[in-house]
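W.,

You were right to be curious about this one. When I first looked at the sequence I had no strong expectations either way, so I just let the prediction run and decided to look at it fresh. Below is the sequence, 516 residues in total, followed by the output.
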Amino acid sequence: MPMIDRRNFLAVGFSWLLIAAAPAGVIGTQRGPVFGPARPFSFDRLSRLAKMRAGEPYQAPPAPAADLLNRIDFDAVQKIRFRPDYELWRGAASRLPVAFFHLNKYAAAPVKIHAVNGGMAREIIYGPQYFDYGGTGLDTKLPADAGFSGFRVMNAQASAIDWLAFQGASYFRSSGSEDQYGASARGIAINTALSTTEEFPRFSHFWLDEQGQTITIYALLDGPSITGAYRFDAVKGDSVVMQVHAELFARADIARLGIAPLTSMYWYGENTRATSVDWRPEIHDSDGLSLWTGTGERIWRPLNDPRTLQTNSFADKSPKGFGLMQRDRSFENYQDDGAFYNKRPGIWVEPRGDWGEGAVQLVEIPTDDETHDNIVAYWQPKSSVSAGDSFKLDYKLYWQDREPNGTDTQARVVATRRGRGGIPGVMPPPTGKQKFVIDFQGGPLGQMEARFDVSPVVTTSRGKIDNAYVVKVVGTDRWRAFFDLAADGNAPVNLRCFLRLNGKALSETWLYQYLT
């Protein structure tokens, strides 16, 4: 399974997001995009179109001027800037302007973009006049109808900062409340982490509508195995919240369907610092998978950068939510004033309706740098998907720094560390033992005075646990669990820990896969 190259696929596209656009007024009196004729539009029409296409053979997207687009690499992208005079809805009161992405080496398939008003849609007609080509000369060489590769929604009028962007396959992302991009979402995942090649369906057509501070994005999904009609309603407040409705139609049998897929990067953190080669203490977009099961259990699974591809399934029924989160928000723990990993939002998925039986799957792919998205999480239904099947999905996405919905009732895991087992300073140290140290914070532990009857409940899939205890960290509101693991062999060890007092759980459940 190939990793998504952040620098050459996502990072290139989204590097435009914080680059100031060309000054207004450099193209004379022309203002706003050019539109095609008005045609009726509704979500029902879009759904019927997706269903019709599912009954037809798949056609791969065109690749106009492939040789020229191959020259628009990371450096060339920096020179091509969108002209703000051509933003959709620019200058209109209480509207959110929309800018467009140029095609490039890593997003070479054009998409159709339309503006919707009063049940009528007009295509936004591409032209080279939308962009300042920075002396590259590409404006005279590319086809006049090359097309856009995606779009971004701006924060406010005349602002060069955006908060939502769609570009490449079915990828989209938000910068959250701190205007910092990190993890991505996708429309759907097909055959992720199987021996066969992963399929990446794409949003081929978009329709944009806006009511006040809510932008509605309709999208047509098309791929060899599936088609779909999507509606995204997104609004930015203290966080970015997006309601998603999708109607999907299977063209072919699908071995592994991933619903509400999330994609992120984890290279190393405090739990894997022995593998770090960079001077920065930690490098990751997300540091854990958070789960809220159908039975109400809260689970935190710290991420790993494994030596070989690892896929873990967390079976559930009627899940309440899951997400890839960035819990560590301290700049001191990253020391990166360029990437600002401490500001990157987590993404939380909240199912709407009953998703039935299935599993949240976590895929961790080896990486040796920060330019690859090597983490994937999604919901896999228990039921199989066959050609001709159709189904509807509803869920909400929260782009924010912590999970919504009652996470303060139990203490949360805020750090995971490991090192040599035994008692510090007692020599010689024991052989074959690994010490785990887990910090918990909040919930019923928040105001609790130091005491010694809080106990860690620790279990392991193999090996032996000893020397387990809990202390309150002096001068803080954190509680720290310690235990040693002795396990032989090279197979992964699955560990589980939570804090308990008088028979009652005080914390969420910490899950960890120790790779010996």
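Here's what jumped out at me. The longest strand covers residues 226-236. And, maybe more interesting for your project: The chain has four helices and 36 strands.

Coffee later to discuss?

I.
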